[in-house]
């Protein structure tokens, strides 16, 4: 009975130039981690890097959606690390690295802000005060260890990074530069990267510079997710880049997973 009601309502909405979709369908279609599970073959994903892992929520989600992968979670903030280690103790496929990712191996000053989710190796900019108010007000600094990703996974020299997730509060470009050898060898298959279109931190690279470097490494922009706005202007979003070779190989799966001329996931692929 419910099926017939849905069909009837769909036709009515279509008549008035509207489309009927479930909330869950739209929610999952704007979740780049879930979308990745509909592009890649989860059983073939073995190595994931979670840069800026915070308290490990994304690491857990990645581990659940890709059940054969090891998730290497990088986080330098001790308070977050305590929670992250607790989650890793419950899940042996999450490996914690108490490190910041960057373009060189060294010690760095790490800025702790009023809103700890905005902690960064960079100091807040004047623009951040206009947009975020006191949330990015500096409260303290600590010393942390920073390492190049190229040097973090030497033991897996013949293994591809299937997913590289970066949420480093302005430090994403330096982290990419610290993985130059991996990129030049074509060993990074997908990047999920938070980009800020307004410079919230001093010395933060422009989003154009960041996206251009990723494209130079052979990855292509797939889509933009979880956009945030300020007075109508986009200020932040998660961008998903997929290596061109993976895009070619995933054509058939994407045909099944997505509506042809839309970024909305097919409801049948969500129910799988």
Question: Your description of this structure?
Answer:
With 272 residues, the protein is α/β, with parallel strands linked by helices. The protein has a single domain, classed as Vaccinia Virus protein VP39 (Rossmann fold), CATH 3.40.50. The chain has 13 helices and 10 strands. It has a 7-stranded mixed beta sheet. The longest helix has 14 residues, at 2-15. The mean pLDDT is 91.
Number of strands: 10
Q: Which regions have little confidence, pLDDT < 50, spanning 5+ residues?
A: none
Q: What's the number of structural domains?
A: 1
Intertermini distance: 23 Å
* Secondary-structure class: alpha/beta
Helix fraction by DSSP (H/I, runs of at least 4): 25-40%
Report the CATH superfamily. Answer: Vaccinia Virus protein VP39
Key features of this structure:
single chain; 272 residues; Rossmann fold; seven-stranded mixed sheet; three-stranded mixed sheet; 13 helices; 10 strands; 36% helix; 25% strand
Topology readout:
Layout: H1 2-15, H2 23-29, H3 32-37, E1 47-51, H4 57-65, E2 70-74, H5 78-90, E3 94-97, E4 100-101, E5 106-113, H6 126-132, E6 138-147, H7 149-152, E7 163-166, H8 172-177, H9 180-184, E8 190-196, H10 207-216, E9 219-230, E10 233-243, H11 244-249, H12 251-257, H13 267-270
Parallel strand pairs: 1-2, 1-7, 2-3, 4-6, 7-8
Antiparallel strand pairs: 5-6, 8-10, 9-10
């Amino acid at each position: 009975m419910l099926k017939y009601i849905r069909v009837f309502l769909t036709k009515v909405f279509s008549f008035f130039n509207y489309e009927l979709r479930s909330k869950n369908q739209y929610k999952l279609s704007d979740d780049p981690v879930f979308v990745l599970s509909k592009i890649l073959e989860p059983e073939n994903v073995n190595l994931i890097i979670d840069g800026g892992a915070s308290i490990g929520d994304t690491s857990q989600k990645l581990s659940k959606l890709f059940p054969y992968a090891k998730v290497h979670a990088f986080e330098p903030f001790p308070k977050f690390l305590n929670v992250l280690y607790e989650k890793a103790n419950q899940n042996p496929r999450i490996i914690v690295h108490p490190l910041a990712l960057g373009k060189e191996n060294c010690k760095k000053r790490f800025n702790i802000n009023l809103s700890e989710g905005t902690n960064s190796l960079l100091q807040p900019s004047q623009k951040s005060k206009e947009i975020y108010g006191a949330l990015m007000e500096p409260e303290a600094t600590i010393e942390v260890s920073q390492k190049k990703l190229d040097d973090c996974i030497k033991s897996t020299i013949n293994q591809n990074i299937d997913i590289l997730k970066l949420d480093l509060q302005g430090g994403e470009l330096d982290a990419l530069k610290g993985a130059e050898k991996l990129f030049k060898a074509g060993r990074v298959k997908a990047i999920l990267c938070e980009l800020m279109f307004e410079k919230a931190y001093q010395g933060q690279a422009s989003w154009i510079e960041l996206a251009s470097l990723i494209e130079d490494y052979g990855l292509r922009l797939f889509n933009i997710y979880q956009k945030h706005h300020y007075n109508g202007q986009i200020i932040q979003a998660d961008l998903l880049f997929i290596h061109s070779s993976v895009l070619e190989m995933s054509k058939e799966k994407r045909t099944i997973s997505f509506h042809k001329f839309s970024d909305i996931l097919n409801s049948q692929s969500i129910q799988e």
